[in-house]
Every structure is written in structure tokens, then in C-alpha cells.
Input
Amino acid sequence: MEKSVKYKRIVVKVGSSTLTHDNNRLNLRRLEALTRTLSELKNSGCDVILVSSAAISAGTAKLGLSERPRTTMEKQAVAAVGQTELMKVYSHFFDMFGHSVGQILLTRDEIERKTAYENAENTFNTLLSMSCIPIVNENDSMSYAEIEFGDNDTLSAYVAKICRADVLIILSDIDGLYTDNPRENPSATLIPRVSEITDKIRSFAGGAGTNRGTGGLATKIKAAELVTSAGIPMYIVNGENPEIIYDITDGKQCGTYFEANSDNGKSTGVL
Output
């Protein structure tokens, strides 16, 4: 990446493993750092959209459950509790830094129809015009297999396309895409830049990194395919320190950068 990159509209996705501790309780220190960083980007003139997981984890902790729910009905109920808790915390932190937030819950069904897609696009644009930070999650309490995104990596790619973002940043529990699983193979090397998503690149992706998340690198590669084909670049970086987002906006090399397909402009219309 060249120095002094300026992104006007940024979508940031953060997963459950980044936002929570092993006991499913929210990692408030990291949430504070994330909201402070995004607030500063907002102060600098960027439009910021946050796609946030952790509703089920937050609900599990709030209800005092010994483990995450397994059935669909239990997950839906726990997500309803956790989403309220999550938004309360986000609202508190962003308010502390002088910004308002708006909640948007989506299912795939709601944006695969032209009218619904346009409504979603208008809602995002109106919130941003009001200097509000949209916080997006899948509507877990109403979602089921036929209409769900299945993971927030995929959702974040759709949101980036709807909002016509300049970049998608995925904060993960790993530094980026490696040639092998670095937790199992110490010889695995980080791939700093991907110009084309090939079968070989796909083969580097493994399963979920923790038992608190639903996605892994495979879903992140899928997200990269969706956004780069629409002319939007994407990063996978370690979210342990959310201030790494500053390095990205300053044009520094971070994690794995997926080049946008120059043959396509930012997409419009139904996904």
C-alpha cells in the first residue's frame, strides 16, 4: 500500500473472539479501545460502519449459562438478550467519545430483494448523513438456515457493498492469512498481500479459531472474494490492539491485504 492512504468510508468487522473473554463476558478494555479508535476516525472525517458479533456470547454471560447454547431456539433467545447488552455497552462507550450509534439487524432475505436492498442502502446513508455510527449484526433472533448469512464475515462483505465502502477491515484473532495454521506449524508464514484469490489461497484457510466464533479464515476468504470483486479492498488483521486500524488508514503494511479487482467498480443493486 502507498503511504497517506485516505479512506472516506470504512467498514470494520469485529468477531466474538476479539470482543469477549473465554468465559463469554465482554472484554471491556478492548471495547473501549475499539470505540475510541473508531471515534477518532469519525472525528477525522471518515464515515464508519461497525459490524459486530458477540450477541450470543454476551447473552450467555448475562444469563449466567455455563456454556453457549446449542439449539437454534436457544441461540435465538440468548441472542435477543445479548444484543441488548452489546448495544448498551457500545452506546455507553461511543457516547463517552461524543458519538451516537444506530442499530441495524439484517438477514440475507432482507437484502436480496431490490426494494429491501434499496431501503437498507438508504438507512445506512441517512444514518451516516446524521453523523451516526451504524452498528450492524445479523438478526440472530429471527434468523434461520434459509435466510441467514451464517457468519458476520460474510455479512460485513455485504454491508461494505451496500454502503459502497472504500475498504473492509476484519479484526480477527490471528495476524492475517498464513501459508498454514501458525498455531500448529511454527514454520507457517504470513501472506502480506493477495492480488488474486486462487484455489491455492483458498487452501490456506482453516476452520474456526475459537469456540466463541462461527467463522474462520474460510469465511474471511469468502468475504474477500465478495468485496474485491466489487472493487473494494480488504484487510485481515489481529484485533488484539484495535489501534492497528490507524496503521491501515496511514497506509502501513498490516496483516493481509486483499487487492480490489480493478476491472469492477463498487457494486450497485441486489446482492
Notes: Strands lie at 9-14, 47-52, 100-106, 132-138, 167-172, 193-194, 234-238, 256-258. Confidence is low (pLDDT under 50) at residues 207-215, 267-271. DSSP finds ten helices and eight strands in the chain. The first strand starts at residue 9 and ends at 14.
